[in-house]
């Protein structure tokens, strides 16, 4: 197995670790999770650890793509597993944030629905030997998702000093971009989808 694929698998392995750390019943076991007050932001140690793991996982996403392209190590497994790892990571974080009311459950529902529809379109295209490349809106969606996760985990730090809920603002912007991106994929592929019916 080549290095890019190992990095992709590492990202997938980090997902259940994230879930365990975030959902662990610390209080039940008498564990007092430290809370840090920085620039009007109350940030728990759990969120800081999740942020670090998320940052590491995001870096593996960047490097596996760079290494695969530069070293010509692109494989069928990589093409299949890389986007799955990305969606697992980001959607898991959003579901965790929704589980404790940090964000509305509507947000991960919309994002997961969008990803499912786009994946279905890509599957139909693959059966017709058509490759649907990642689009600008799709990449923008991913960037805004990552930005919103960072601000949500860090409780709006450093914008907390001016009491700006940047996490909530950015996650809703990301949600709107997800919807627009999904519609864009569908509109560009509707003729191909119609032919498949």
Tally of distinct domains: 1
In the predicted model, the low-confidence regions spanning at least 5 consecutive residues are none
**Largest sheet properties:** 2 strands, antiparallel
CATH topology (level 3) name: Four Helix Bundle (Hemerythrin (Met), subunit A)
Q: How many runs of DSSP E, i.e. beta strands?
A: 2
* Proportion of residues in helical segments: over 70%
Looking across the biggest beta sheet, what order are the strands in? 1-2
Give the overall average pLDDT.
Answer: 89
CATH architecture: Up-down Bundle
Number of discrete helical segments: 6
Topology as a string of helices (H) and strands (E) = HEEHHHHH
Structural class determined from secondary elements: mainly alpha
First and last CA, distance = 39 Å
CATH class membership: Mainly Alpha
